[in-house]
Design brief:
By secondary structure, this protein is α+β, with helices and mostly antiparallel strands. Helices cover about 20% and strands about 20% of the residues.
């Protein structure tokens, strides 16, 4: 190291009106050699998640923040020891892809081509005839007529992903502001630069939706379409008569499924005044997950109804006893108890597909989630070991979890591990709806408002309180007949509520 080189401080950029922003990840450690724009830490406010890039290149001398800490605008993040090898103008933002666009030799015919913003992708050569035999090992020069070797370390989509020699790229130019805000680590950012991938368009599937190498690879594969291979010419030798003896040829990769059509952007201000209201943090987190479930899981909804006349009479008779025990006995407690018994009767509803989609993972426990309406959006607390709780215990846990959810104090542990979900809109209204499955669960029960109806029984119409049920299920795991049996069994159990008060072993 050059002893004459001093230390450089990297501080938190202007965060606007945000104060005490949480540090959710530290991406480097002392001793790491980093380049300009290398992300140092990841910050998370109640509005967004962002990486703070380095404003200089060098060696990390020390870190002045840690995971779980709080920072504000101007706070010191790290101290760097410069190595004297910074790129010119290191204080100004540059794209990390710049070294990839090396000028070809002056004799190359592409010397006059304009500089591309997508290195290694746009510069891919067209199909070429087979190259001459390689020179002997240790030769100091390539064979005559062979193309110049790519610079050491240069990566291309074909070498990385096994893409065909000829392809068409649908990758858009990199949006630098969006690229810098993307939730990805340094190695993923470098990988994306080398492929010319705009991280702002990549959906992350890692921890806390962080973009991984696999996400970048999947994005590139979806953006490349290989042209149909021309028919092979018959060989002039005797090998043509025995094609089975020819060396195997790798089959071209199956074309990627087309992406969903984008909703066109609309300038609403041309029609009248507008106002922008940001989504809550819960809505921004749950939205992509609901979208993923709706797109990836084949939903079918089975509608049914249950006669809860006797259940409501029983609940009213137990109200005083429940209040004395400090419990609010709601219809949801009875419905949850009935769902526990239904899951025990139909264990496939308490299962999930494995990652390969070839096997079922059948749970031996019963944790039931319920949708809770809060001022910030919908959350799903989970009642753990619901099969070991009677109606009163279920009612107590429902009340406690609902209160924590409304106060915004629900810890992550209380929203994990669910096997089956109940979404009850009975206190609001409606006659039926199609709830979205809370993947990786395979079913969800929607409950609407009960209504007094005239039901024909034993030669006449009698008033009965009927509860609408809407069961959405994953058709890969559950078929229609099984779903109908489930709702029929559930309705029968709710119609005979005395069985729901049995002691839990």
């Amino acid at each position: 190291m050059n002893a004459a080189v001093g230390l450089t401080e990297v501080r938190v950029p202007d965060l606007g009106n945000f104060r005490d922003v949480a540090v959710i990840d530290v991406l480097v450690k002392p001793g790491d050699s980093i380049a300009l724009d290398t992300p140092l830490v990841t910050l998370e406010s109640d509005k967004a998640t962002m990486d703070v890039p380095s404003t200089a290149a060098g060696i990390v001398e020390s870190l002045h923040t840690s995971k779980g800490g709080k920072v504000n605008s101007g706070d010191l993040i790290a101290t760097l020891r410069a190595d004297g090898a910074q790129r010119p103008g290191a204080g100004a933002p540059q794209t990390a892809a710049a070294p990839q666009v090396a000028a070809p030799p002056a004799t190359a015919p592409a010397a006059a081509a304009p500089r591309s913003s997508r290195p290694a992708v746009a510069a891919a050569p067209p199909p070429s005839p087979p190259a001459p035999a390689a020179p002997p090992a240790g030769s100091g020069s390539p064979a005559p007529g062979a193309p110049a070797a790519a610079p050491r370390g240069t990566l291309t989509p074909r070498s990385l992903l096994g893409m065909p020699t000829s392809y068409r790229s649908d990758l858009a130019p990199i949006d630098e502001p969006g690229f810098s805000r993307a939730h990805a680590g340094p190695s993923v950012r470098k990988f994306a630069r080398e492929l010319g991938v705009n991280l702002a368009q990549v959906t992350g599937h890692g921890f806390k939706d962080r973009i991984t190498h696999e996400d970048v690879k999947a994005f590139v594969k979806a953006a490349f379409v290989a042209p149909a291979a021309p028919p092979a010419k018959p060989a002039p030798s005797a090998a043509a008569a025995a094609p089975a003896a020819a060396p195997p040829v790798a089959a071209p990769a199956a074309p990627a499924a087309p992406a969903l059509p984008a909703v066109p952007a609309v300038d609403y201000t041309q029609f009248g005044p507008t106002a922008v209201e940001p989504l809550s943090r819960i809505q921004r987190i749950s939205g992509p997950r609901l979208h993923a479930s709706w797109v990836n899981v084949p939903h079918v909804t089975q509608f049914d109804e249950a006669d809860i006349t006797e259940l409501e009479q029983l609940r009213a008779s137990l109200k005083d006893r429940a209040q004395a025990a400090g419990v609010k006995l709601t219809p949801l407690a009875f419905i949850m108890r009935a769902c526990v018994k239904a899951l025990q009767e139909f264990p496939r509803f308490n299962a999930s597909l494995d990652a390969g989609g070839a096997n079922l993972i059948v749970r031996k426990y019963v944790h039931i989630g319920f949708a809770a309406d809060t001022p910030n959006g919908l959350v799903v607390p989970v009642v753990r070991d619901a099969d070991r709780k009677d109606v009163y215990e279920l009612a107590r846990h429902l009340g406690q979890l609902s209160e924590k959810a409304r106060a915004g104090k629900l810890p992550p542990a209380d929203m994990q591990g669910g096997c089956f979900t109940i979404s009850s809109l009975g206190g609001i209204g409606g006659t039926a709806f199609t709830p979205i499955i809370n993947a990786p669960e395979v079913a969800i029960l929607g409950v609407s408002r009960s209504s007094l109806r005239a039901v024909y029984r034993e030669g006449g119409f009698v008033p009965r309180l009927m509860l609408p049920l809407s069961l959405s299920y994953d058709h890969r795991v559950i078929d229609g007949a099984m779903a109908a049996r489930f709702t029929t069994w559930l309705a029968h159990t709710l119609a005979e509520p005395r069985g729901l008060l049995e002691a839990v072993p």
